[in-house]
């Protein structure tokens, strides 16, 4: 699941960068005066007073779009559609998922009006590179939406990449936890992990659980290295903001890589290109039931029939108590909308405590900084009864990265380097040096295409 997510992220980022030049002229709908390209280019939205919000006099038709084409009509209705139609019975709501014939480029070329875009943070730059961003600040003020009620890092991210403008509001965020199979711990008489452990302590547990028994190879711990790096707890950045070049070939990133690969270097387990994929390792945990512990940083929990529970993602000694970065989904009113106030009314409802509570009960965690709402996480789902739900939501999270196309390129190279290391193709120093060089070549090509 994570492999697909990061693969889609990279593809979207590269595609978006290629279309930057088109957004200002050749694409129907234009840029409406919005900044085209990365948010740091053009006029600083914060430098001038935002215009007064437009009046709610447009059509009662709203079209929502996502680049995450795996969300079908039923999933959309479960997440948003049913709640929106109930709250706004006079609105005609249409949903368009990305797919063959309905990519963002194709829709804009056909003159399709998109009112609201919703997507994970991984696509944060996608619609902006088509010149669709709209500063919602006037509407936020008109609706008296208190941005301090949101999980701080999700709003700080928007202000940072928007140079003060707010182009998107978070609607829910993924859980992050260390999940463990109780049966394996019981089988080997090893005490369960606890909340607030360090990675060093989890390493010691993993060594005790990596063993061969009855012809079966058990593994103490696996993870999606790319996701762990993208949401890293140390605030490490893939790209130097001053030079725009990859910086994964340095001591900090080497130490971080070592903190992950050490779990894969116990004797007895032979890692290959086939069993080292995220999908394969997750299957070892969820289907084969031969892995004792697994971290998921972008949502998803073990299957209902597993005897599982969760503890907080372990922390690093140099960053005590700091959990992984949030992985939120965002809602964005576009500058194409013919009724921006109505579109924003829908966004405002979806980020309200009323909707957030019900959505959290269905297993999509609130982005509001409200622990009372989080207590109801998964309440409508039997799989969460008796589980350590609080562990899935760090008390304090690391600052979000930028998710710029350049960052996505370097991130993918880091994940590839991880595979090269655990399959014994390269050592850490060589793998990260080669990954850094490869990332900078792609970044240089991307930069050239933007000009």
Automatic annotation (TrEMBL):
<keyword id="KW-0732">Signal</keyword>
<dbReference type="Pfam" id="PF01547">
    <property type="entry name" value="SBP_bac_1"/>
</dbReference>
<dbReference type="InterPro" id="IPR006059">
    <property type="entry name" value="SBP"/>
</dbReference>
<protein>
    <recommendedName>
        <fullName>Extracellular solute-binding protein</fullName>
    </recommendedName>
</protein>
<feature type="region of interest" description="Disordered">
    <location>
        <begin position="32"/>
        <end position="63"/>
    </location>
</feature>
<feature type="signal peptide">
    <location>
        <begin position="1"/>
        <end position="23"/>
    </location>
</feature>
<dbReference type="InterPro" id="IPR050490">
    <property type="entry name" value="Bact_solute-bd_prot1"/>
</dbReference>
């Amino acid at each position: 699941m994570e492999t697909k997510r990061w693969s889609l992220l990279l593809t979207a980022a590269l595609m978006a960068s290629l279309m930057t030049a088109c957004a200002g002229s050749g694409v129907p709908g234009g840029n409406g005066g919005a900044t085209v390209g990365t948010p740091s280019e053009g006029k600083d939205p914060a430098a001038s007073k935002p215009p007064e919000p437009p009046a709610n006099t447009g059509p009662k038709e709203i079209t929502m779009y996502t680049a995450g084409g795996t969300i079908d009509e039923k999933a959309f209705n479960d997440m948003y559609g049913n709640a929106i139609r109930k709250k706004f019975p006079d609105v005609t709501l249409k949903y368009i998922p990305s797919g063959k014939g309905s990519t963002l480029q194709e829709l804009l070329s056909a003159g399709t009006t998109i009112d609201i875009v919703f997507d994970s943070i991984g696509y944060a730059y996608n619609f902006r590179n088509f010149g669709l961003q709209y500063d919602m600040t006037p509407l936020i003020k008109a609706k008296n939406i208190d941005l301090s009620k949101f999980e701080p890092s999700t709003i700080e991210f928007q202000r940072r990449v928007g140079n003060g403008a707010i182009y998107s509001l978070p609607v829910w965020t993924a859980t992050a936890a260390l999940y463990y199979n109780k049966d394996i711990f019981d089988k080997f008489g090893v005490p369960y992990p606890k909340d607030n452990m360090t990675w060093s302590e989890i390493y010691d547990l993993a060594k005790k659980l990596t063993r061969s028994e009855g012809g079966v190879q058990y593994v103490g711990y696996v993870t999606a290295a790319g996701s762990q790096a993208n949401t890293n707890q140390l605030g490490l950045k893939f790209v130097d903001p001053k030079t725009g070049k990859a910086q994964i070939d340095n001591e900090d990133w080497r130490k971080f890589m070592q903190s992950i690969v050490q779990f894969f270097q116990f004797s007895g387990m032979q890692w290959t290109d086939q069993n080292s994929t995220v999908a394969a390792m997750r299957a070892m945990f969820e289907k084969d039931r031969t892995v004792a512990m697994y971290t998921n940083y972008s949502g998803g929990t073990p299957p209902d029939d597993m005897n599982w529970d969760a503890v907080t993602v372990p922390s690093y000694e140099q960053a005590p108590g700091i959990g992984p970065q949030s992985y939120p989904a965002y809602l964005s009113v576009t500058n194409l909308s013919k009724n921006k106030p109505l579109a924003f009314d829908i966004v405002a409802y979806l980020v309200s405590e009323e909707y957030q509570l019900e959505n959290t009960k269905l297993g999509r965690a609130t982005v509001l900084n409200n622990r009372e709402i989080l207590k109801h996480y998964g309440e409508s789902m039997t799989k969460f009864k008796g589980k350590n739900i609080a562990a899935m939501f760090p008390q304090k999270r690391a600052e979000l990265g930028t998710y710029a196309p350049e960052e996505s390129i370097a991130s993918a190279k880091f994940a590839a380097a991880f595979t090269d290391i655990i399959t014994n193709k390269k050592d850490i120093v060589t793998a990260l040096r080669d990954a850094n060089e490869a990332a900078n070549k792609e970044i240089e090509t991307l930069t050239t295409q933007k000009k």
